[in-house]
Amino acid sequence: MIVLGVDTSAVAAGAAIVKDGKLISETYINTGLTHSQTMLTLIDSALNMADMSIDDVDAFAVSSGPGSFTGIRIGVSAVKGLCFAQNKPCFAVSTLEALANCADIDGFVICPVMDARCMQVYTALFEKTDGEIIRIADDAPKTLAELSEELTVIGKKVLLIGDGADISYKFLAEKGLDVRKFSEIFKFQHASGVAITAYRNYNRGEEAVSADNLVPSYLRLSQAERELKKSGDAKK
């Protein structure tokens, strides 16, 4: 099975080709250019390096959130268009689960963290059990204090991965937790994690979705929506 994965959930962007669970090629950019400028070029480059065409792809995968509202929309829209054009299935992959699959290491609670500003992170928890990355907590926006309490109850070594790892490490270490940071290379999201996660989930029996049913997962309202809600509540 050949999966083309796309990630535009944060400041970096990329595309990757995975064949039968093996990473074949990956493109990555973190230059500040908008994802709408770079996404199709990244996909073309990943296919060319793998000596494949879009027709060779069996399924598409995209990081559907959490992350940047604009970035997620760009990635999801691009993959929806490819799926419609190719009449092929797609997988909506949690950005946090994709990060966890990049940190495929035994002996830790794997804690992907994405900086959500104001001492908050998007996070989830995973563990490697019997050779598989298993989810033990759902994706959610949390304060660092809430995350600290949750990890204290679990009482295990913690491996942080993602662009929120630096701020999380400082806070959690000061709380006395046994925390480590994963490789600096994976401080930002990678499309390889998206493609590998989709392939692994497919082999666990997860069904792909049609382009019509592919939707973002933001986890919380945008800042504009929060401000509008706050304004409406104040008028009541």
What characteristics describe this protein?
236 residues; alpha/beta; five-stranded mixed beta sheet; 7 helices; 37% helix
Count of beta strands? 10
User: What is the distance, rounded to the nearest whole angstrom, between the alpha carbons of the first and last residues?
Assistant: 55 Å
Number of helices: 7
Assembly type of the shown chains? Answer: single chain
Order of helices and strands: EEEHEHEHEEEHEHEHH
The average pLDDT value, as a whole number, equals 93
Biggest sheet, in brief? 5 strands, mixed
Strand content: 25-35%
Alpha-beta content class:
alpha/beta
Rg calculated over all Cα atoms: 18 Å
Parts with pLDDT < 50 across at least 5 consecutive residues: 222-230
**Helicity level, as a percent range?**
25-40%
Basic shape: globular
Strand order of the largest sheet: 3-2-1-4-5
Summarize the structure.
Helix content is 37%, strand content 29%. With 236 residues, it is of the alpha/beta class.
Structural notes for this entry:
β9, α5 and β10 form a beta-alpha-beta unit. This protein is 37% helix and 29% strand. The strands form two sheets. The protein has a five-stranded mixed beta sheet, sandwiched between helices. Strands 8-7-6-9-10 form a five-stranded mixed beta sheet, sandwiched between helices. It contains seven helices and ten strands. It has helices at residues 35-49, 69-86, 95-102, 144-154, 165-174, 191-203, 223-235; strands at 2-7, 13-19, 22-29, 59-65, 90-94, 109-115, 120-129, 132-143, 158-161, 179-181. The protein has 236 residues and is an alpha/beta fold. α1 (35-49) crosses α2 and α3 (95-102) crosses α6. The longest helix is centred in the N-terminal third of the chain and has 18 residues, at 69-86.
